[in-house]
Amino acid sequence: QPTECFLTQPEEKQEITAKAKKRKKKKISDILEKSAPKPGVPKDLQDLLSQHFATRRSVIEIEELKLSDSCFLPANDLTHSFSSYLKEICPKWAKLRKNHKETKSLVMLVICSSALRSLELIKSMTAFKGDCRVLKLFAKHIKIKEQMTMLEKGVFHIGVGTPGRIKALVEQDGLCLNSTKYVILDWNWRDQKLRRMMDIPEV
């Protein structure tokens, strides 16, 4: 009889824990937290573009949007700091910076999902940028007219900002992309909700 008592107790506990486990649903943030960041590949961006434009453009138009793999530089293999990665993909930066004399344009454009992240990246590229001029291209505390005036009057080499503000500057003819040689996407960084820039519907 005593053995029966000892047998039934752990069984009851097992049932209770099993029910508790069933109740707890997995959140998307839990799944994302466990997934390790991967270096981006050209196919990732191509797939996103074709998904985005699939309903709005014809097959021929989507084909025209496709960029060849030669347009892409190697992604950060996640062992680099931001400065060392930029040095690797852009070894002739000093020459490019020296030759850039145009207003309303940038040689390098870094696109990320928030103003705070933009500031973080500007700080982390100190070793790479040298004495070149960097412009903040986000909406937080900075009016678009101020940015347009700065671009018109001065020569800037690097712009770091958010997709919304960069798009607005291009549309309002405040930023010309003709002399832009590099577009860097902050691919793996996640916000508080663990979304990457490309997971945000507005982007």
TrEMBL record:
Which domain of life does this protein belong to? Eukaryota
Give the UniProt entry's GO cellular component terms.
Answer: 90S preribosome; nucleus
Under Gene3D superfamilies, the record lists:
P-loop containing nucleotide triphosphate hydrolases
- What InterPro entries does the record point to? Cms1 (IPR032704), P-loop_NTPase (IPR027417)
Chain positions covered by the region annotation Disordered: 1-21
- Pfam families given for it? CMS1
Q: What is this protein called?
A: Protein CMSS1
Q: Which organism is it from?
A: Tinamus guttatus
